[in-house]
Design goal:
Number of helices: 5
Radius of gyration: 19 Å
Strand content: 15-25%
Largest sheet: 6 strands, antiparallel
Strand order of the largest sheet: 1-2-3-5-4-6
Shape: globular
Order of helices and strands: HHEEEHEEEHH
């Protein structure tokens, strides 16, 4: 038989579990970094993407241990298509190369956009003249959103689940 003193603790634990997944909303007096950290989104490869509240269609992909260029581009393409509603043929550009994260102290990030300033719109693309590597440092470097998202792992499909993420 349960003791009456445990019931409030069980209710509190249940509420904490339910509210733990809620995303806080920035309120008055919070700065842009607080607002951006409150709206962090996870790409299908679990990389964190922080939208830039000052610039539409722009977000920083935050580094994680052992992440390589394909992980950053996967997250950028996934964010562009699933969150921004970009067409698979729209281009995703590096706005700012890898540097300090705007929202996660001690981590780095690459800032991507689907609306580059005019000076970056004709930036380099992978190809015979520039090489086929993926840049994380060159502002203006760009890929089609579907090509960037193509770097996402398809581990669920490999095991026959047939899920479309």
């Amino acid at each position: 038989m349960r003791s009456p003193g445990r019931r409030p603790l069980a209710v509190a634990a249940l509420l904490a579990a339910l509210l733990g997944g809620c995303t806080p909303v920035a309120g008055p007096g919070q700065n842009a970094a607080d607002s951006a950290s409150a709206s962090i989104w996870r790409a299908r490869n679990t990389m964190q993407v922080a939208p830039d509240p000052q610039r539409p269609n722009t977000a920083a992909v935050i580094s994680r241990a052992q992440a390589g260029p394909s992980d950053f581009w996967c997250a950028a393409g996934d964010y562009a298509i699933r969150r921004l509603g970009a067409s698979p043929t729209d281009r995703v550009y590096i706005l700012r190369g890898q540097g300090p994260s705007p929202v996660s102290f001690g981590r780095s990030a690459v800032t991507f956009t689907t609306e580059p300033p005019p000076e970056l719109a004709d930036g380099p693309r992978p190809g015979p003249e520039t090489g086929y590597g993926l840049s994380l440092d060159t502002p203006g470097f760009n890929l089609r959103a579907a090509q960037a998202r193509g770097y996402c792992p398809d581990s669920l499909r490999k095991f026959g689940f047939g899920l479309r993420l």
